[in-house]
Every structure is written in C-alpha cells, then in structure tokens.
Write a structure and sequence with these properties.
The structure holds 2 protein chains of 2 kinds. Chain A is α+β, with helices and mostly antiparallel strands. Chain A folds into 2 domains: 204 residues, P-loop containing nucleotide triphosphate hydrolases (Rossmann fold, 3-Layer(aba) Sandwich); 144 residues, abc- transporter (atp binding component) like domain (Coagulation Factor XIII, Chain A, domain 1), CATH 2.70.50.60. Helices cover 23% and strands 35% of the residues of chain A. Chain A is built from 8 helices and 21 strands. Chain A has a 6-stranded mixed beta sheet with strand order 5-6-7-3-8-9, with helices on both faces. In chain A, strands 12, 14, 15, 16, 19 and 20 form a 6-stranded mixed beta sheet that branches. In chain A, strand 19 and strand 20 form a beta hairpin. In chain A, helix 3 crosses helix 4, helix 3 packs across helix 5 and helix 4 packs across helix 5. Chain B is mainly α. In chain B, 68% of the residues lie in helices and 1% in strands. In chain B, helix 4 runs antiparallel to helix 11. Classes of the chains: A alpha+beta, B mainly alpha. Strand 4 of chain A pairs antiparallel with strand 1 of chain B, so a sheet runs across the interface.
C-alpha cells in the first residue's frame, strides 16, 4: 500500500479577538519583522488551544506540530472534543485555508464535504443545482452528464428535480446535496459531520455509500464525527486530537477506547485557580463525588444514591446566583441539568450539594458539567470536567431490575406482568 | 525523511509563491465559470414579469436624466452628436466597467460562505463576474443598436462608423481587465480592514465624472487634457465612441498607455488576490 496523505509538522495559528485598529499596529509589526527576515514575533507567544483556560496572549495554536501518514484505501476517523482542531485539520486538507507551518503531501484528487449543498442557489432547480454544486466540488460538466441519472436516483427525489430548491424541505435538500457529493470522482474523500440531518433511512444509505467508497473502490476517506457508533462502523484507523495535538493514531477500537477513557477515574477534583490572578469573578475550587454518608467514591454502584459536592469561591456579591450540574453521556448526549434555586450570594466560599437519589443511571461512563451563573449570565462553565463511572453491582437493589448495562441510559424499575391467556 | 516532490499530485504549503498561477487548474474549472454565469443570469430574472427587459430600464432612464440635466440644463457639449446617442454609448460602456469593479471588489465578502467550505481556484469567481456582466453589457448594447437604427431611420442621422470600430472588442476587454484588476486589488485589501469598501461604491460614481462620460474629451482645454488622459478609462471611452459614432479622441500614444496601465493593474490584481485567497477565510 502506498501513502495517500503525508502530513509534516503541521501547525495553524489563529488570532483571537476582534479585528480593528488594534490589529493594524500588530500587522505592521509583523510585516516589519518579516521584512527584516525575522520570525513572526507573535508566533512565539502561542499556546495550546485549551478553550477553558484564559490564555496569556490572544494567539492560539489550533493545531500544533502534527505529523501523520495515511495509507491509500484507509478510512480514517478523526475524533476529539470540541475545539480539538478537527475542523481546522479538515479545512487545511481541503485547502479552504492555509497552514501556518508545515507541509501536506497528497496523492490523488481530493473531494471535500465540509458542508452539504455548498453553492446551492435557491432559485435554481434541483437539476441545475446538481451541475452547479458538482462543478464547485471539482467535477467537469461531462462527468456530471454521465452520472446524472445515478445521482437523481440516489437522491430519491425525481419528482422534484425540476423544481427550484427553495421549495424543498430541508430533508430533500440534504438528500440532493449528498447525492451529488457521493458521486464525486476523487481518490480522497473528506467528510465533516454533515450527516446529522436527514432521516434515518437516508443516513443509512449514506453510510453504506461511504463504506462502499472506502472499502470497495480503494478510496481514502477522512471522516469527522462525534458519533462513535458511526466511526466504529466506517473507519479502520483513527486520529485522536486533543487541544491541537495529535494524541493517538491507531486502530479504531484502541483510539475510541482511549478517547472514552481519557479522564482517569477520580473521586475528587481540585482546581488550582489563583484568586489573585484570574479574570473570573467566581470559580469552582473543588468537586467531590460521594456517597450519602460522606465517603468519597470513584465508582458509583448502580442504583445507589450519590451526591456531587462542589466547593466554589465568589470574589464579589452576586444577585440571583445559581449553580448547575449537568450529566452528559460518553456519546456527548446531554441527559439533564439541575439548577439550584436562585439566591443573593455574598462574596465568599461556598459548598453546594447535589444529591442524586431517584434517577438510576445505567452502568457506564458519564461526564459532569458544572456552571455558575448570575441572572442567567455565565460566571464560569466547566464542560466535561469530571468523569463519572456507574459500575455494575451484584446486590439486588430492586427486584424489578434484571439488567443494568446495555439497557440504554436510564434504568427504570417498571413492573412487568405476564399472564397466560 | 524528505519527500520527493514529483511523487505527489498536490502539496499544501503555508505560503505559496507570489507569482504562482496554476493555469492548468483554472482550465479544469472552466465549466464552473459558465455555470456561475448562467446562475447569475437566470437568478436575475426569476420571479419577475419583465425578465431580462429590466436590463434596459436602467440605461434608458439614465440617458433621459443625462439629456435633461447635462445636455439641456448645463448645456454640455456632445461633440455635435445627438445627445441621447452620445450619452447612451458612454453609459452602456461605463455600466460595464462599474459593474465589474463593484462586484469584483466585494467578491470575498459575498462568497465567504462558499469559500469557507470548499476549494476551487478563487480566481474563478471574479472571472465569472466579469463574464456575466458581459452578458448584461451585450443586452444593453442591443438597446444601443436599436436606438442608433431609430436615429438613422427616423431622425436623419448619418451613421459614421470608422475603422476604429474594429478596436471596440479590444476596448471591452481592456475595460473588463481594468475593472477586474482594480476590483481584485480592492477586494484583497478589504478582507481584513473593511474601511476601503465604503469608499468603493461612491468612489466609482465620482470616477465617472472625471471620465469623459457626460462630456467629450474634446471639450477640455488643451492643458487639462493631458491630465485627463492620465485616466486609463479616458482613451477607452473615447475610442469606443470613435468607432461607433465617429467622434472621439484616441491616438496611438494614449492607446498604448492604456494597455500598459491595464496590464500592470491586472497583474497586480492577480498577484494580490492570489496572496490573500489562501488565508482570507480566517479574517473575513
């Protein structure tokens, strides 16, 4: 097998903040440095892209020194949390933007789908848009001519093909757009998470088409998704990005395992925020997961009540202060969020207890989200700050529960009666 | 581990060569140009009753106003030509130039959505703008022909075509190139700092007044004429009128001057545009 894509020391820098008169002086300074053959003075200040921390400068590395090779015919999943640099990587590979440093070597034609239906014009008919969209994506008109019937057939909207697309439902729009994309001629296909829309039947069809693309025709596919199920089904290898760096490039099961187990189990988490040196006016200092009798636990036995204790510091008085805790599944689906009743809080140190007694989470991994707010405005927001593990247990806590894993997210004690009639 | 460049079909680098112009790639996307032109034309008259007739309305009304204001009230010279013909000839040409420059100068902003999602040679967009405006120009040119025919048949106007008419297509190309080049320079300069874009639309309007549109170059006193001829649009407009109506001021010297200016502006435009297109998505 030969290499289809080779990425060498790729970095991409973004400048945060607004563009205005302030940026002009910086531009002039940078230009002056370049003119004297020196390195860009602002690049040295760059730091890793951790969006939860306040950085020292407003220059951020969205990708930092990434290198990897992709073999021809591989289906590669790109995973990572929001802001890990996945989309930036795809944008650079699709040549929408240029890297700041590093080179990428590519063998073959790239077709990229960062969005479905790019360039669709609402006034034009479906047929006209197939041609427009197809050529924007790099096809020749005669190549589209040859595939037109196939495209229309795949989209499943023959009846509306000569109607302007502004009259289409959003589902039809996506169907048509993906049909064009699925028939692109290229050796490499880059797909961002674009399948989120469209009905289940069509999603399945697209997955099938993409699978066919990578396995059948020896095409290389790069696929970004938060949906581990899709990644598992489609990709044989995965890239795991975190805060702009490449953490792992390995077989899919290994990478997904690492991604899901990214946060080691812990029963308490201490944040080292220095109150004399922070832009925050209030912040969480410590989070504990405990049993109701104040024992710290790393794994919560399924069906047992537990509580989250958050210690937080307020550096000023707040009116209508609330603290909220949310639970997210490992598939990034929010389950619920609970808020405290609003209080007028004076400056100082507080403890908040959230006792979870009634809802029984199924066995598995969950993430904790914590937020502080005043009058509905956020003071601090900590996304997936801590991992919760609900572990299976042998003691029977409810006779109506037969199984606690693989049952979905919630274990619901339901009385079931079977009678012979 | 250094890779051999020839083994790869595409190399993505931080900063391209300043003069890098991938003509082969541009050629590959030629179908896109035509489809974009078609899109512009079709979407222009969709859901209208008069359709392409609307292309006629603007030059007709502008001509009427010019005849009333500049021809009658202000009494500007038209070189002895019938006023409506004189103004219409100039307006049709000027419209093409101003459309080219106005549309090209906002190409990054108008297409940020597409440019941010898919790659194709960005030059395709300005090219398609210039060509789709050519369609519009063509329609308006037909109007001009109809008007000339009317003057010849009913007003006893003697047609006075000259050999310079052969230069007419050349002038159109020069005008397109000048609009394209300066539009691209402006578009590249306005991606990061929008200030300049406020200047463009009224700047082009003002530019019309220093170009021989509402008056002929011949009405200038000799010592100011030299300054007026620094404007590359002057010989173009004068040359087009010379071919069509037989009155205009074009010499070999001014023609060559214009060609040189146009080539310089176009080259600069392509270079600057190429440089900006690589990262503009991050700043626009």
């Amino acid at each position: 097998m030969s290499t289809a894509i080779k990425v060498e020391d790729l970095s991409k820098v973004y400048h945060l903040g607004e563009i205005g008169t302030g940026t002009l002086s910086r531009d002039i300074e940078r230009w002056w440095a370049l003119l004297r053959g020196k390195e860009d003075p602002f690049l040295k200040l760059g730091e890793s892209n951790d969006r939860t921390k306040k950085g020292e400068s407003n220059i951020v590395y969205s990708l930092k020194d990434i290198s990897f090779d992709i073999q021809q015919g591989d289906a590669v999943g790109v995973i990572g949390r929001n802001g890990a640099g996945k989309s930036t990587l795809l944008k650079i590979l699709s040549r929408v933007t240029s890297p700041t440093k590093g080179n990428i070597y590519v063998k073959g034609r790239i077709a990229s789908l960062l969005e479905v239906g790019t360039g669709f014009h609402p006034e034009l008919t479906g047929r006209e848009n197939i041609y427009l969209n197809g050529t924007i994506l790099g096809m020749r008109k005669k190549e589209i001519d040859r595939r037109l019937d196939e495209i229309i057939d795949f989209s499943g909207i023959e009846r509306y093909i000569d109607t302007p697309v502004k009259r289409y439902s959003s589902g039809m729009y996506v169907r048509l757009a993906f049909a064009v994309a699925a028939h692109l001629i290229s050796e490499i296909l880059i797909v961002d998470e674009v399948l989120a829309v469209g009905d289940a039947e069509f999603q399945k069809k697209c997955l099938g088409k993409m699978g066919e693309v990578s396995k059948g025709q020896g095409r290389t596919v790069l696929f970004v998704s938060h949906n581990m199920h899709m990644i598992q089904k489609l990709c044989n290898t995965c890239l795991y990005l975190k805060e702009g760096s490449l953490l792992m490039h390995n077989d899919t099961p290994a990478v997904i395992g690492a991604y899901l187990n990214n946060k080691t189990l812990q029963s308490s988490l201490v944040f080292e925020t220095d109150e004399n040196n922070t832009h925050l006016t209030g912040f969480v200092k410590r989070i504990d997961v405990k049993t109701l009798d104040e024992q710290n636990i790393e794994e919560i036995p399924v069906g047992r009540p537990w509580k989250v204790v958050a210690q937080f510091q307020l550096l000023q008085d707040f009116s209508e202060f609330r603290i909220a805790v949310g639970i997210i599944t490992s598939q990034e689906m929010p389950l619920w969020t609970v808020w405290s009743a609003p209080i007028d809080a004076k400056k100082g140190l507080y403890n908040a207890e959230f006792i979870f007694e009634e809802v029984i989470l199924a066995t598995g991994d969950y993430q904790l989200v914590i937020g502080l707010s005043t009058r509905g405005a956020s003071i601090q927001y900590l996304e997936d700050c801590m991992r919760l593990n609900i572990s299976s247990t042998s003691d029977i806590f409810d006779s109506r529960i037969y199984k606690t894993d693989g049952v979905g997210v919630i274990v619901n004690p339901v009385e079931v009666n079977i009678t012979k009639i | 581990m250094h890779s051999e460049e020839k083994d790869w079909s595409l190399i993505i680098k931080p900063r391209g060569n300043l003069f890098e112009l991938n003509l082969e790639e541009l050629w590959h996307y030629r179908d896109l140009v035509w489809l974009l032109v078609k899109r512009d034309f079709v979407s222009f008259y969709k859901q209208t009753i008069f359709g392409p007739i609307w292309f006629f309305i603007q030059p007709i009304f502008t001509t009427i106003i010019f005849v009333l204001v500049f021809g009658n009230l202000a009494g500007f010279s038209t070189d002895g030509l019938p006023q409506p013909l004189f103004y219409m000839t100039n307006i049709v040409a000027w419209n093409y130039f101003s459309d080219c420059i106005n549309k090209t100068s906002t190409v990054f902003k108008d297409n940020a959505q597409i440019f941010g999602k898919v790659y194709f040679p960005r030059l395709i967009m300005p090219f398609s703008i210039v060509i789709s405006n050519l369609v519009r120009f063509g329609v308006q040119f037909i109007l001009l022909i109809i008007m000339m025919a009317y003057y010849i048949l009913f007003k006893g106007y003697h047609p006075n075509f000259t050999w310079y008419l052969l230069l007419y297509p050349v002038m159109i190309v020069l005008m397109a190139a000048l609009g394209l080049g300066s539009g691209m320079i402006i578009s590249a300069m306005t991606t990061k700092y929008r200030d300049l874009s406020f200047l463009v639309s009224f700047g082009v309007q003002l530019y019309m007044y220093i170009t021989p549109i509402i008056y002929p170059l011949s009405s200038f006193p000799a010592k100011y004429k030299k300054i007026a001829l620094l404007n590359p649009m002057s010989p173009i407009i004068e040359g087009m009128r010379l071919g069509l109506l037989g009155k205009g001021d074009l010499t070999t010297g001014t023609f060559i001057y214009t060609v040189v200016v146009v080539l310089v502006v176009l080259t600069m435009g392509i270079i600057i545009f190429n440089k900006v297109e690589k990262t503009f998505v991050d700043t626009v």
